[in-house]
TrEMBL record:
It comes from Acinetobacter stercoris. Residues 231-477 form the CN hydrolase domain. This is Apolipoprotein N-acyltransferase. Pathway: Protein modification; lipoprotein biosynthesis (N-acyl transfer). The gene is lnt. PROSITE patterns: CN_HYDROLASE (PS50263). It comes from the Bacteria. GO terms for biological process: lipoprotein biosynthetic process.
Amino acid sequence: MRAHFEKLLNSSGTNQQLPFIFPFLISLFSGAIFSLALAPYYWWWIAILSPALLYVSLRKRSPKQAWFIGWAYGFGLWFVGAFWLYTSIHVYGNTHAVLSILMIAFMALVMGLFTAVQTWLYRRFFPETPLTFTPLWVFFEWAKTWVFTGFPWLFAGYAFTERFLDGYAPLFGVFAVSFTVIVLASALVEILNRKIFWIIPSALLLLGAWGSSKIDFVEPKAAKPLSVSLIQGNIPQDLKWLTEYQEKTLMIYLNLTKTEWGRDLIVWPESSIPLFQSDIEPFLKSMDEQGKASGSAWVTGIPYWDMKESKQQNQPMFYNSLMASGSNADGLYKKQRLVPFGEYIPLSGMLSWVLPSLQNDPSMSGFSRGANDQKPLMVKGHPLASAICYEVAYPNLTRRNAANSDFLVTVSNDAWFTGTAGPMQHLQMVQMRAKENGRWFIRATNTGITAFINEKGHIVEQAPMDKEYVLRGNLPAMQGETWYTRFSDWPILGFSLFLLILGWIYRPRNVDVSFKSRR
């Protein structure tokens, strides 16, 4: 095996290369193991090993070969890394096990195209160097946040949440952390290939991460901490939307909340009220009055039917929303990024056979997209930037909402993925968003993981999973602004583009000659 690896690493021509099947299988394997670098495993070193194996597998390969090598890597990455979707599709979507696996495989093939295009471009237009391999990686991670509405998961930078390299997050965001990871991974290959020069930029990046971690962009406000209670109801997903279980759901949350009246803020999770606001107005009025009488603000996830907008659009406009009421509290946030097959079903008339049990679930189909320019919720004089569930995976969306806020709040219902790595990976993203924006993140979920995360991205307290629980904390409002909040992803994207332009201009002539000879 070592001899094969050295031959793959040191080959200088096509006639010296291993057969194509070897780099193809190595890249498939390296993509499949990548998610072990993320929560709940935290084997961060795999985030170095995995792209390093892809980098070495692409050496001296034609663009056509690079396409399939990258596709194999992407397929392994998404099939294993996002296999937590199986629970929602099979268990709660009532889809046959074989069809569920085929659907995940199809998703992995589609998402794998990102890496296929990335590696084709790398071998077609650029020299083989970390300074071209890395910026292409960053651009394609960024593309996953917006192409076809985006699926921003499994980024290399998340492997270093709370460790070593995350000092770059408040400066330039998660993509800067990913940039550093991929430089280190590909530089390691070059160092093993006796290009010792790469020790210098690697050391500088590590030194920069250490130095960045010492910078404080934000500080607590003089105002007294906000006393917050998060209510985790632990409602099973298969019962949550049943008509006969709705009253019991409300009673569970009411009973858990009884002891919390009088605290500054009480937060219920996403869709903790399984009814539209128009169907439960007396209950909402009672909660508002209770909050005002006790001096508590109340924030809850609720499906919202905008009747005025429905008349204007001549169709029902339903939103997954977050509503604030009670003492000195006001605001309504409508979710901006919806989950395909989660909150709306693309081509639902044609695809009704795929997820039969979800077609009549009001939480799964027919939600509308909220506007981009929504105001933050106001609680006790503090603006709260909101993110509902999956939205927190979008770095720039969270950054935009976080502008001029004192706290970040996110509600979620990860019961869809009970027993999988999905909820842990989701929490890891919340940590990264907190660190990027320098704000405490208040996270209330139905089954877990409910948590308080400080401005450094560290979990201060969290509730146990799959259990009814009340999590209490006293949180300081923060002031100041990180570079990432101010400048977004543009600095790291601009630097990556600069490297690619240099790489294209100064590429060796044999890059083009090789391509023409192999067409």
